[in-house]
Structures are given as structure tokens and as C-alpha cells.
Amino acid sequence: MHVLIIGAAGMVGRKLLDRIAHEDGVLGGEVTRLTLVDVVEPTAPGPLDAITRSLALDLSDAGAAAQLIAERPDIIFHLAAIVSGEAEADFEKGYRVNLDGTRALFDAIRAEGLKEPYRPRVIFASSVAVFGAPFPEKIGDEFFTTPLTSYGTQKAIAELLLADYSRRGIFDGIGIRLPTICVRPGKPNKAASGFFSNILREPLAGQEAVLPVEEDVLHWFASPRSAAGFFVHAATLDLEKVGLRRNLTMPGLSATVRDEIAALERVAGAKAVRLIRREPDETIRRIVAGWPRDFDARRAAELGFKAETRFDDIIRAHIEDELGGKI
Amino acid sequence: MHVLIIGAAGMVGRKLLDRIAHEDGVLGGEVTRLTLVDVVEPTAPGPLDAITRSLALDLSDAGAAAQLIAERPDIIFHLAAIVSGEAEADFEKGYRVNLDGTRALFDAIRAEGLKEPYRPRVIFASSVAVFGAPFPEKIGDEFFTTPLTSYGTQKAIAELLLADYSRRGIFDGIGIRLPTICVRPGKPNKAASGFFSNILREPLAGQEAVLPVEEDVLHWFASPRSAAGFFVHAATLDLEKVGLRRNLTMPGLSATVRDEIAALERVAGAKAVRLIRREPDETIRRIVAGWPRDFDARRAAELGFKAETRFDDIIRAHIEDELGGKI
């Protein structure tokens, strides 16, 4: 089985690679060939070295998608995107990469299939940014997509293309709308959502972290471990059961910042909590106010997608996966 | 005021032109210049001749959109599309015209605005084909768009672009999701929805018509007169009131074929009804089964969009507008 991962250098891509490296048959068969793509050359975990080819390329460059698809991969994970803030700041780059790049991939698959029958599975990383406020208390599976960012617009468009191309039999697509991933490993970053992870990750490492919003802010979370699980599950799921509505809001955990902090205290003690410094930021507060808070992601749950149900588990997953089980 | 109508040779375009020709100030100011575009050269009603320039061009051709936008029209009606059946049969043509053509128009407006501030009003003809079965009994304003045709997909994508470009201040856009237009003037055509009009228009003209489905088929209608009214209203509506959710399901009338026939009998007598010949067609029956039946189009109604509430009025509008008031 030849697996192509576009956006393999990103956090979710790396988590997914770890699963492929350490769990035989996790994608439903033996992975005999792996192609990893990102704008910087991605690296494979050691056990996958021998079967991996890594490429630095941009999907929106002329011919890039066709070059990847000419190898006729069986499973394609499309995780690559210009993130929300950058897509908002750079209109043309966001549309070029997130929309044109994705469409180039889909059209390359179609062109390959016109030469000789070809119908790979395509697993696309979408986002709850396809939704825009005002929201109902819980966003159901049939709520409309009225994004309030260009990034969300590009994801929503890609979802529509994915569903139509799948309906036409061009490929077997499934769109995975990710919750906010928490605890994000790595350094604090400037994403407006960064603090949700920072206030856990930094104290767990004995470092101070800044909380820019009130503790009653409610948001929608899943761990990096769950995110990798969503993609693995999507790779083997019977798509007949999914039907024609191919884009699914993933299950997650709706929690307040207060819930996060309480979980941190239970897992790591009051000392960790004392490392959180309150520093209200009106801009971040306003951005976060427009974000989805809670979902009723029933379809995905019925289809077997799983996420944490308690914040303690999200923190424990971080300690196990990133800190060698110790704090 | 310079008005550009793209798709001006179509039925809705002609109805809109009649309104502009015969109602001073219907678009909120004096129309001093009119540019009409279609793939065949459109014609203006007599009174508009002196201010009209007609062009035969395809919006998806290189440079076509820029050429139109270089003239900086104040109001742009974008009514042009490859229809549902053709977009389904010809994948590339549908995406090229309905998606790339629309995006070329939107991007040409953006490019013009980067030269010198420019923010026209853009009124886009969308369709209830953005929805796909299964449906709730009434489709509300927040129901999700999961089209089951490439045409519906292209319209749903254009809606997302329109909302994002409007949010960014590139233009002031509004998307008008049209019900099935009935009674369509002209000859019977092969559209699967044609019979809804045929069974009224033909008997009213003393001709036989074929009914391929059961009488309990429920569907969503507005007259050509209402359709023109939607676009006229959209041209002058205060978009602040619409907010960021710029695509609106238009009001309409939910009626069964039985309701249509009963209205025909009330307006034109039993003789007309006897001209309807039952000829069940399994293919058409199946296609129609996937179509929306009823809507709760509350937002558009609150914003002042109006349609018929009784089928008799739909038939009378046809008699007045197409048959000189006589049958």
C-alpha cells in the first residue's frame, strides 16, 4: 500500500506518522511505500526510513499535484494548509494554497483516473472554522457553514469539492473537521488559540504561561493523539456507511478554561496552576468570542470516531506522549 | 448608474430588464448605462436601447471578466450559469463556467479595487440546488448545504466566495437562492423540472402537456415576476441588515402538483385540466424525489423579499405577463 501524506511536517502529520511507524496494519494493510510532502522536507520516524520518499513542494505549484498523483498512491492524507491567521493576512496566498492547491490535487486524481481507472481514498483535514458565529448552544451535524475567515471559507469550499468529487466516483473522500488540538506540543506560538495549550504545556514543564481571556471561555478540544486517531480511523472506515455527506465534525470535549485549570491542578498540583499568569488581551478575547464553543457531533461518534471525554485525559495523553510519562 | 447584467439573455435576465425599462428608479437611481452580457448577444427592451451595450462573451474566458469590470459598473447582476443537467453531464464545463467564471468576476472586482477604490454591489443568482436530500420537513435558514449535483456544488462554492469577498469589503454581495420558477414562459424544455410549468403553460395555450409524476409531489415555487422582484429588491436592500450571512433562500410557495392542477381549474376551467396527460416517468420521478419540497425562508421574508402565497396568483401572473391578460 502506497500512502501519500501532504503536510507531513505539521503536528498532526507527525503524530500520524508515529502511528503508522509503530502499529502494523493501522491503515488496514501493510504500508510498503510512503511519500511525505511539505513545504519543508519532512522526515519519517526511523522505522519508516527505508520505504519513505520525502519531498519539499507546494501543492499549488504547477505540476506538483500531478507529479505526486502519477505515482498512484492508494491513500492520500491532505493535511497541508496556510493557517487561519496567515490566510487572513495574505488573501492571495490563502486562496492559492488552501483552495487552488486542494483543487489541483483533486483534479490531478481525476486526470489520472481518466488515463486508467484510479480511485484512491482521500482524507482531508478540515476545521471547525467552517462555522461562524452566531451559533446555537451546541452546533449540530446539519448546521450551515458560514465561515468568518478566509481560511474557514477555503476549508468549506474544499469540503464541497471533496463531496462532489466523491459522489462522482473520482475518489473516496472524507473530510475531518478537527477541534482545537490541545495540548499542542512544541513552543508557544502566536496563534490566537495558542493559550489553550500554553497554560497546560508550559506549567507542566515548570514554565510560566499567559492566560489572556476569562476562565469562563468555553471551547472545543481534542488531543493530538485523538487527532491522529481520527485520520487513522478515516483511512479504514467503510464509506458506504458515511453516505454522500462526507464532511464530519469530529467528536471533542467542550470545556472552559476553568475546566482546563482544574484538570491541571488534579494532574500536576497547585504549584503548576500558580505558573499561569492572567494578562487580559482584548484582541484575543474578541477573536475567541466568535469561535464555536460546543458541538453535538453525533454522526462522527456513531461512525466510530473517538475523543477524550475528560480534560484530565487530554493532559495525561500529553504527559505520556510528549514528556515520557513524567512531570 | 452603470448596471451590468451577466446572463442577460436568460429568462430571469429578460424579466429584470423589463422592470428596469418600465419602472424609473427601480434600482434606486437613474440607470444611465447598461451593459448586457451573455454567451449569445442579448437584446435590451426598446426603451433601454440608447443606453445599452450588448456583448457576447463567456465570463470564464481569459480577460473577459477584467474587460467588463474595467468599466466599473455600480451594480452587477450575475445570473449566468451552465444549468444543472449540463453541469452534471459536462464536469469540466460546469466547473469552468459556474465556478471559475464566477471567481474570475469576483477577482476582477478585487483587482480593480486595488487600482482605485471600487466596491460595487454584486447580486448573484444561486439556487435551492445547494441543498441535498434527506431534508427536514421544512428547510430552515440554517440548514447545511450538501448538494447532490455538481451544479449545486458550484453554486454553494460561489455563495461562500461571495460571503468572504463581501466580508473583506471587496464588494457588497448578496446571493439569491431561487425557488423553481413557474410558470416558465417559452417552449417545453427537457429539464427534469419542466413539467411543473408545462402542465400549466401548455393547457393555458390550448395545448396538451405531459405529467410524469404523481400528483402528491410537493415542490417550491415562485413566478418569474417574483424572481425579477427578488433581484430588484436585492439591488436596493440595506446590506447592513443582512449582516455577514449573505446568501438567502428566497420566499416561495410550497405546493403539490395537485395544488397546481386545482389552481389551473379555478383559473382556466376543467377544459384546461383535461389537456394534462398522465405519463409516468420513473427517471423523472426519482430525480424529483431528491429535490427540496418546502422551506421556512424566514430571513428573506423579514428582509422584505416577497413571493406569491397562492398558486392562483402564480397562474394569473403568467396570464397577465405572457398572455396579455387573456386565455
Provide a quick synopsis of the model.
Chain A has 327 residues and is an alpha/beta fold.
- Please name the fourth-level CATH homologous superfamily of the domain at 2-178 and 224-249 in chain A: NAD(P)-binding Rossmann-like Domain
The tally of beta strands of chain A, per DSSP, is 12
The N- and C-terminal alpha carbons of chain A lie at a distance of 39 Å
List unreliable stretches of 5+ residues of chain A. Answer: none
Query: Overall pLDDT of chain A, averaged?
Result: 96
The rounded Rg of chain A comes to 19 Å
Shape of chain A: globular
Judging by the overall fold, what is the CATH architecture of the domain at 2-178 and 224-249 in chain A?
3-Layer(aba) Sandwich
Which percent bin holds the helix content of chain A?
Answer: 40-55%
Largest interface: A-B, 24 and 24 residues
Tell me the β content of chain A: 15-25%
Structural class designation of chain A = alpha/beta
Keywords (chains A, B): Carbohydrate metabolism, NADP
Protein name (chains A, B): SDR family oxidoreductase
Pfam families (chains A, B): Epimerase
Organism (chains A, B): Mesorhizobium retamae
